[in-house]
Amino acid sequence: MKITSFTNDQIVKSIASIILISILICSLILFSCKKGAQLNSPKIKEVTAKDILGNPNYLAICYGGYRQDSREIQPTIEEIKEDLKLLSVLDIKVIRTYNVHLAEVENTLKAIAALKKEDKTFEMYMMLGAWIDCQNAWTNSEPNHDVESERNAIEIDEAVRLSNKYPEIIKILAVGNEAMVKWATSYYVQPNVILKWVNHLQKLKKNNKLSKDLWITCSDDFASWGGAENTYKTKDLEALINAVDYVSMHTYPFHNSHYNPNFWKTPQNENHLSEVEKVNAAVNRSVEFAKMQYNTVKNYVKSINPSKPVHIGETGWASSSDGHYGNHGSKAADEYKEALYYDALRTWTNKEGISCFFFEAFDETWKDSKNPSGSENHFGLFTVDGKAKYALWKNVDTKAFQNLKRSGNRIAKTFNGSKEELMKTVLMPPNH
User: Distance (Å, rounded) from C-alpha 73 to C-alpha 75?
Assistant: First the structure.
């Protein structure tokens, strides 16, 4: 047997060759495994309106980012990002807007896109609203409710542009906001106008000029959807119910505490209750009132189209009022009642699989800028300067807002967190 001797240099070269070959083999194995995993792994499904609506994992809210007394001052992208982070920790994943022609809307879309890029787990979608009104709306001339404004076409075109630019964010498009209800005397239109634009958008979907997964609706008062007097129940409304992808209805027991207060006033058989018990009972009746309006609309819609979903596009409760809902009115407005109503609506709608766009995320003082105490300025769950109202005190306790701010302010409780001081502001509902 011949014994071959190797030099140290030859040994080193041989070992290096063996290591190199091993690395190449391992690399090929890893590449093959990775490629196989990619082929076998399911494709991530894009979230659509169908996935969102009625899903309690996608809580919804109405959002406006305005922090000043005028909409002339548009919120910046950074300000909106602050707001969206606050909403995200509340498990809010769907926001609703009302206009398309103001910078705030596209700034909000840009803010969402930026947050998604910064954090792959960040999730937020939008229900985009195109404002619709009649000829001469908001002018010194008499509104013509039988003819639509020329601006409507511009609003719809812009809504289409944004929906196509941000399809990963905009999942719902609403034609009009309370645009058919007769008490909107400054601007309401007939149902055939809304129907015209809904059909237009559905045709764009059919022709692949809008995403087929984009759901089209109109967000309007419960009365407009056949939930009130028969004058609303027209052939055009029936056609509209069939044309939309779902019905978005509004219910406001808060406003009805003034306009239709029978459910609100304390009945004689509750006079023996304590003051807090009377308030709790009044809010419970308010929730039942909202359920009644929802079910009235649902029953009418199902009589036209049994498969048509119905969700709540707007409901809310103001925390302050110096008018119809304050101390000299129905006594409905305060933070305690707002919290009771918010919690009860979330519990009910989550259980029943109803999406509920609660009105609203933040106070917006531009809505009644000449009257700082007006109820329209105080529907937010947060104040303008970022204080958490009573409905969100529990979230402050769990440190949900830790390291988050609004306008430079850390999120703190209203009333300095004093339940005793809060309860001093609670107004007693009037007696029957």
Answer: 7
Q: Rg for the chain (alpha carbons), in Å?
A: 28
Distance (Å) of CA 229 to CA 181, 225, 234, 253, 402: 11, 10, 11, 18, 49
Nearest to 96 by CA among 176, 160, 150, 165: 176
Round to whole Å and give the CA distance between 106 and 90.
Answer: 23
A 10 A CB-CB count for 14 gives: 11
Is pLDDT above 80 for 159? yes
Residue 312 belongs to what H/E stretch?
strand 310-316
Whole-number pLDDT of residue 5: 46
Q: Interior CA angle at 312 toward 310 and 315, to 5°?
A: 160
Q: Which of 86, 101, 217, 93 is nearest to 161 (CA)?
A: 101
Both tokens of residue 54? 């009625």
Beta carbons of 202 and 216 less than 8 angstroms apart: yes
Q: Is the distance from CB of 384 to CB of 362 less than 8 angstroms?
A: yes
Residue 225 pLDDT more than 50? yes
pLDDT at residue 388, rounded to an integer: 98
Cα three-residue angle 234-236-237, rounded to 5 degrees: 65
Is the model's pLDDT at 128 over the cut of 90? yes
Question: Percent helix, strand and coil across the chain, each rounded to 5?
Answer: 45, 15, 40
Give pTM, 2 decimals.
Answer: 0.90
pLDDT averaged over every residue in the chain: 92
